[in-house]
Design a protein that fits this description.
Blueprint: H1 2-17, H2 33-44, E1 45-46, E2 68-70, E3 76-80, E4 87-88, E5 102-104, E6 111-112, E7 126-128, E8 133-137, E9 150-152, E10 157-161, E11 174-176, E12 181-183, E13 193-195, H3 200-203, H4 222-230, H5 234-268, E14 283-284, E15 287-289, H6 292-298, E16 307-311, E17 314-320, E18 326-332, H7 340-352, E19 364-367, E20 372-377, H8 384-387, E21 391-392, E22 395-396, H9 400-420, E23 435-437, E24 443-445, H10 450-454, E25 464-466, H11 474-479, H12 484-500, H13 517-526, H14 544-557, H15 568-575, H16 580-588, H17 606-612, E26 616-618
Parallel strand pairs: 3-5, 5-7, 6-8, 7-9, 8-10, 9-11, 10-12, 11-13, 15-19, 25-26
Antiparallel strand pairs: 1-4, 2-3, 14-15, 16-17, 17-18, 18-20, 19-20, 21-22, 23-24
C-alpha cells in the first residue's frame, strides 16, 4: 500500500505542476478521479479494435481522449462509444463521472447488469444502452434521474418488473424498453413516446397486446389495464374523467390564445430573435440551444473571412464561442419555414441521436423566425477533398495508409446510418468534400440528415435531385427516388476519389473521356492498366493488391442496377478482406442487359446517364475545414 500511495502522491505533484490543465476534477490529493473512473470503464470492457487506446492512466486530461467530451469547465460531460464492437461489462465506476449528461453505448455486445450507480448521475439527460447483452433488472435508482430526457434500454436481456420509480421522471421524451423479458405491472411513464413491444410477459407471445409506440397518456395492455381499472372506485373514475375533460378544455383554451397572439404579432409584422427569450443553458435533449446573437458574435457577424465552405445546404463558418471553444456554424438556406419550429426541432433531434465515432456530432442549434443554424465541432484537418492535393514537408497529406483508413471509417459511419440508426438516415451526397477529418485524420461523415431537414417544400413543378454530378446514382437521376443503395453508389465514387486524387468529373479529360471518372477507371481496369489510375502524388507508394481490391469494391458499389450493389455492411466486410473475391467473380458473370430502368436498355457509360437526365441537380460543394 505504501508504494501505491507514493505513486498517487507523485501523480498529484505532476498534476499540480501542470498549471495550464483544469483542476476541476482533482481530488484533494491531486488525483484526477475522472481519469480513474474512465480507466475502470476501459478495464472492464473488451476492446478488439483498440478504440480506447489513447485512454491512459498517466494522462492528466481525459478531455483529449477519443469518445470523451468535456464541458467548458473541464468535467467529462459525455461518453460516446456506440457501434464499436465492445463487449465485457460496464464498470460501476461510471457513477464517479458525476457531471455526465450523455452516455451512448448502443450497438455493442456489453453484458452483465446495469450499474445501479448510474442513478446518482444527477445531470444525465441521455442514456442509451440499447442493442447490447445487458441482463438482470432495471435499477430502480434510474427513477432519481430528474433531468433524463432519452432512455433507451431496448434489445437487451433485461428481466424483472419495470421500476415504478421511472414514473417520477417528468421530462422524458422517449423511453424504449422493447425486446427484453420484462414483466408487469408497468409504471405510469409520462414520456412522449414509450415502447414496450417485444416483452412476452407483458405483451403476450405475439406482442398483439402492445402497441409499438405508446404515446402519453399511456395505453396499457388489456390485462394490465383491467387490473388497474378493478382497483379504482367509482368516485375515483368520476374524478379522473372530470380531470381529463377539464384538462382537455384547458389545453384548447391555451391553443386558441396562442393562435390569437400569433395572429396579432404577425399582423403587426414585429420580427425579433426568438432565441433572445431563452436561457442560454436551455437544451433540446442533449443539444444546446444557442441564441442568434451568440452565434453572430462567434462568427464576427458571419464574416466572409470565417467561411469554411459553401454548399447546397448553406454556408459554414468558423466560430469562437464565449467559452473559447472553436465550432463550425452551418447557416442553412432554403429551410422550410412553413413546416414550423416543431418540425425543425423534431428533425434536429433525429440527427442528434445519430452518434458514432465516424459521424459528425451535432452540438446545438439556433432557430428564429428568419434563421436556422446548426453548430458542430470544428474539424481542424478539413475535408478529404481539401486534403487530397495538399502536401506536408513534400509528402502527400493523405498517404495510402490514411486513404485506406478514411475508406474504412466512412464505411463504418454509413453502416451506422443505414442499419443501426433508428430511424435510418440516407445521406444522399456521399463524396470526399463531405467527409471531414478530425485531429487524428479519422474520417467523420458530415451533412447527414440535412436533405430530409430541408426537403419538406412543395415540388409540384419538378423533382429536385440533391447531390453532386458525378456522384449521383443512375436510378436517382432517372426517378428522383433515393435509397441506401444511392449512398452505396456515392461511396464507390468516393473510393475512386481516394485512389485517383481527382474529383469525379476531373479524371482523364486529356484522354477525351468526358471527364467522368467512373467510365475512365472501368476502361483502365478492363485493360489491366490500374497503375495509371493511382494518384501520381503517391509516387508509387501503395500496395498493388490493395489497389486492385479497392477498385473492385468501388466498381461493385457503382453498378448501374441498384439491386446488384452490396449493402454498406457488406462493403465494409469486403474492405476488411472478407468475401470480395466471391462477390467480384459473381459480378463478372452477370448479364447486365437484364437491367431495365425504363423501356429502352440503359446507357453503357455513366456519362450518358448524366447527359440523358432532365432533372434538376442541386450541386453541393462543401470542401474546406469545418
Amino acid at each position: 500500500m505504501g508504494i501505491i500511495s507514493s505513486i498517487f502522491w507523485l501523480q498529484g505533484l505532476l498534476l499540480l505542476a501542470l498549471t495550464d490543465i483544469s483542476s476541476a476534477a482533482l481530488s484533494p490529493s491531486g488525483v484526477n478521479y475522472e481519469v480513474v473512473a474512465l480507466i475502470a470503464i476501459k478495464n472492464d470492457l473488451v476492446d478488439p479494435h483498440n478504440v480506447l487506446d489513447n485512454w491512459d492512466i498517466n494522462s492528466v486530461d481525459p478531455c483529449s481522449w477519443r469518445m470523451v467530451t468535456c464541458s467548458p469547465d473541464g468535467y467529462v460531460s459525455a461518453l460516446g462509444l456506440p457501434s464499436q464492437n465492445l463487449s465485457g461489462t460496464l464498470s460501476p465506476g461510471i457513477e464517479n463521472l458525476t457531471n455526465l449528461q450523455s452516455v451512448l453505448l448502443q450497438n455493442n455486445g456489453i453484458s452483465g447488469s446495469i450499474p445501479a450507480g448510474i442513478g446518482n448521475l444527477e445531470k444525465l439527460q441521455t442514456l442509451d444502452l440499447s442493442n447490447n447483452a445487458f441482463s438482470g433488472e432495471i435499477p430502480s435508482s434510474l427513477g432519481a434521474l430528474e433531468n433524463l430526457n432519452y432512455l433507451r434500454l431496448n434489445n437487451n436481456s433485461l428481466t424483472g418488473v419495470c421500476p415504478q420509480s421511472l414514473g417520477n421522471i417528468k421530462g422524458l421524451t422517449l423511453v424504449d424498453l422493447s425486446y427484453n423479458n420484462l414483466s408487469g405491472p408497468l409504471p405510469r411513464i409520462s414520456a412522449r413516446t414509450f415502447k414496450i413491444v417485444g416483452n412476452p410477459l407483458i405483451c403476450g407471445p405475439t406482442s398483439n397486446n402492445c402497441s409499438t409506440v405508446l404515446p402519453e397518456p399511456l395505453s396499457f395492455p388489456p390485462d394490465v389495464m383491467r387490473a388497474h381499472s378493478d382497483s379504482l372506485t367509482k368516485s375515483q373514475r368520476v374524478a379522473i374523467a372530470f380531470g381529463a375533460s377539464f384538462g382537455g378544455a384547458f389545453v384548447v383554451a391555451i391553443i386558441i390564445g396562442l393562435l390569437v397572439w400569433w395572429r396579432y404579432r404577425h399582423n403587426q409584422q414585429i420580427f425579433f430573435d426568438v432565441n433572445e427569450q431563452y436561457d442560454p443553458e436551455v437544451r433540446l435533449g442533449h443539444l444546446k440551444r444557442y441564441s442568434f446573437k451568440e452565434l453572430r458574435a462567434a462568427t464576427d457577424h458571419f464574416s466572409s473571412k470565417n467561411i469554411l465552405g459553401r454548399g447546397g445546404f448553406g454556408i459554414v463558418y468558423k466560430g469562437r464561442l464565449n467559452d473559447g471553444s472553436i465550432v463550425a456554424v452551418k447557416r442553412l438556406k432554403d429551410y422550410n419555414a412553413a413546416a414550423g419550429e416543431i418540425q425543425f426541432q423534431t428533425e434536429v433531434e433525429t440527427i442528434s441521436l445519430a452518434v458514432h465515432r465516424n459521424l459528425l456530432r451535432l452540438c446545438g442549434f439556433c432557430s428564429t423566425q428568419n434563421e436556422r443554424l446548426l453548430v458542430y465541432p470544428y474539424m481542424p484537418n478539413g475535408s478529404v477533398a481539401s486534403r487530397l492535393k495538399e502536401h506536408i514537408r513534400g509528402e502527400p497529406a493523405l498517404d495510402w495508409v490514411r486513404r485506406k483508413r478514411i475508406a474504412l471509417g466512412t464505411a463504418r459511419g454509413l453502416v451506422y446510418l443505414h442499419e443501426q440508426c433508428d430511424p435510418k438516415i440516407i445521406h444522399r451526397d456521399v463524396k470526399a468534400a463531405n467527409i471531414l477529418l478530425d485531429e487524428d485524420f479519422e474520417a467523420v461523415v458530415g451533412d447527414f440528415g440535412l436533405a430530409k431537414l430541408l426537403d419538406h417544400r412543395d415540388s409540384h413543378v419538378t423533382t429536385a435531385v440533391r447531390g453532386t454530378v458525378g456522384h449521383i446514382a443512375p436510378e436517382y437521376l432517372s426517378t428522383g427516388q433515393s435509397s441506401e443503395k444511392t449512398d452505396v453508389f456515392g461511396f464507390g465514387i468516393l473510393l475512386l476519389e481516394l485512389i485517383t486524387g481527382h474529383k469525379a468529373l476531373d479524371f482523364g479529360r486529356a484522354a477525351n473521356q468526358k471527364g467522368v471518372m467512373l467510365d475512365g477507371v472501368k476502361k483502365l481496369q478492363q485493360e489491366r492498366r490500374l497503375t495509371q489510375v493511382v494518384d501520381k502524388d503517391l509516387k508509387g507508394n501503395f500496395d498493388m493488391i490493395e489497389l486492385e481490391e479497392m477498385v473492385q469494391v468501388a466498381l461493385l458499389c457503382t453498378q448501374f442496377n441498384p439491386s446488384q450493389r452490396p449493402k454498406m455492411s457488406e462493403v465494409l466486410k469486403m474492405l476488411e478482406g472478407d468475401g470480395l473475391a466471391e462477390r467480384w467473380e459473381a459480378s463478372q458473370k452477370l448479364d447486365t442487359s437484364k437491367f431495365r430502368c425504363c423501356e429502352n436498355p440503359p446507357p453503357e457509360r455513366y456519362s450518358d446517364f448524366i447527359e440523358d437526365s432532365s432533372l434538376i441537380v442541386e450541386a453541393m460543394e462543401l470542401s474546406g475545414p469545418r
